[in-house]
Specification:
Length: 359
C-alpha cells in the first residue's frame, strides 16, 4: 500500500531537487511524444536544449535568450509576490496585452514627433494600463469576494478582443495597404526599444527584468512587505492577527504583477515584435506561471527558469524548422514541465511510504 506521510518540516533538499527532476521527466516523456510523432526523440531533445547554445549558429541564438527570457522573468517576478501570498493572478497575459496597447497608443499619438520624453511616457502608460487591468479582479475580490483566478483568466479573452479591435481600427497603420496592425515602432526612433549593445540581445526590457529581480529579492528578504506576504501565504489567520490587511495585500500584489506584465508587453511591442498585430499575444503571460513555479517563487530561481524556458522557445523554433515538429508539440512539451513540477511538488512536504496492508 502506498501512502503519503506528512513531514514535520518541509524538505529543503526535495524543494531544490524537484525542479531538476521535473526537467528530466519532461525530457523523457517529451521524447516519447516526439517518437509518437515519428521524430527521433534524442535528436529532438538535443536540438531544443543543445543547438541554441553550442551549434554552429549559436552566435545568433545566444543573444535571443535574453530577448525571450526578459518578458518571462519580468512577468514571473510580479506573479511570484502574489503566489507567495496565496493570491492567484492567472491573467498576466491580458495585462501584458493591455500594457502593449497602452504603450503603443502613446507612441502613435505622438507620431511623427521627435522627443526623448516619448519612450518614458510609453513606460508609464504601459505600467498604468497593466495595473488598472489587474485592478478589475482585485476590486471584485475585495468588494464582492469573487475568485481572482476566474476573473483574471476571463479578462485575458477580453484583452484579446480589444487587441483585435485596435489592430483593425484605431491603431491600424494607415499606410499598411489594408492589413491589420500598427506602424512598426522599431522604425520610429523615439519609441523604439533596440539592442543597447549590438550582438548582445540586451534591450531596456532586459534591464527592467534585472531591476525587478533585485527589487523582488529586497522586498522578500529585507522589507516588512515581504514578511507580510510570506505570512499571508503560510498562515492567513496568523497574518490577520499580525495586522496584515488581506484586501490591501490583494490590491498590492495584483497591482504590482499587473504593472510588470504591462511593462513586458510594452518592451516587446516596441522591440522584438515591433508592431501591434492581432496575433501579438504569444502566451508569455501563461508561460511565466511555469517560470515562477519552476523557480520556486524565488528571484534567483526565476532567472534560471526564465532562461530555461527561453531555451525551449528558441530550441523549439529550431526543431520546427529543421525537424518539422509542429508548434503544438513544443507547447505540449512546455506544458509537461508545469504538470511534472506540480505533481512532484508533494515531495517536499510528504514522504512516500510503501507498506503491506494489515488486516
Amino acid at each position: 500500500m502506498i501512502r503519503l506521510e506528512k513531514r514535520g518540516t518541509p524538505s529543503r533538499l526535495w524543494a531544490l531537487a524537484t525542479p531538476l527532476l521535473a526537467v528530466v521527466l519532461t525530457m523523457i516523456f517529451g521524447g516519447l511524444l516526439f517518437a509518437l510523432l515519428g521524430k527521433d526523440p534524442v535528436m529532438a531533445i538535443r536540438t531544443i536544449f543543445w543547438d541554441p547554445l553550442f551549434s554552429e549558429n549559436a552566435w545568433y541564438y545566444r543573444p535571443q535568450l535574453f530577448v525571450k527570457a526578459a518578458p518571462l522573468i519580468l512577468i514571473a517576478t510580479g506573479l511570484s509576490l502574489g503566489f507567495r501570498a496565496g493570491i492567484w493572478n492567472i491573467g498576466a497575459e491580458g495585462q501584458y496585452i493591455i500594457g502593449a496597447i497602452c504603450g503603443a497608443a502613446v507612441a502613435l499619438a505622438f507620431y511623427p514627433a521627435e522627443g526623448w520624453y516619448i519612450f518614458p511616457l510609453m513606460v508609464v502608460a504601459a505600467a498604468l494600463g497593466g495595473f488598472l487591468w489587474a485592478m478589475i479582479p482585485a476590486v471584485l475580490k475585495t468588494r464582492f469576494g469573487t475568485s481572482e483566478i476566474l476573473v483574471s483568466l476571463m479578462l485575458v479573452y477580453v484583452a484579446g478582443h480589444i487587441l483585435s479591435w485596435v489592430a483593425f481600427g484605431p491603431l491600424k497603420n494607415p499606410q499598411g495597404y489594408g492589413f491589420p496592425g500598427s506602424r512598426n515602432l522599431q522604425q520610429y526612433p523615439p519609441a523604439a526599444n533596440p539592442e543597447l549593445w549590438d550582438g548582445t540581445g540586451i534591450h531596456w526590457g532586459v534591464i527592467a527584468a534585472g531591476l525587478a529581480v533585485v527589487a523582488t529579492w529586497v522586498i522578500l528578504s529585507r522589507h516588512i512587505l515581504g514578511f507580510r506576504i510570506r505570512v499571508a501565504g503560510l498562515a492567513p489567520r496568523a497574518a490577520r492577527f499580525a495586522g496584515v490587511s488581506p484586501d490591501r495585500l490583494v490590491v498590492l500584489c495584483l497591482g504590482i504583477s499587473g504593472a510588470l506584465a504591462g511593462l513586458a508587453g510594452m518592451f516587446e511591442v516596441s522591440g522584438p515584435s515591433g508592431t501591434l498585430s492581432p496575433d501579438f499575444a504569444t502566451g508569455y503571460g501563461f508561460t511565466a506561471i511555469i517560470v515562477a513555479f519552476l523557480g520556486r517563487l524565488h528571484p534567483v530561481g526565476i532567472v534560471l527558469a526564465g532562461f530555461l524556458l527561453a531555451l525551449t522557445y528558441i530550441g523549439g523554433e529550431i526543431a520546427q524548422s529543421t525537424l518539422g515538429l509542429p508548434a503544438s508539440a513544443i507547447q505540449a512539451f512546455q506544458g509537461m514541465l508545469l504538470f511534472f513540477l506540480l505533481a512532484l511538488d508533494v515531495l517536499p512536504n510528504y514522504r512516500i511510504r510503501i507498506a503491506k496492508e494489515t488486516a
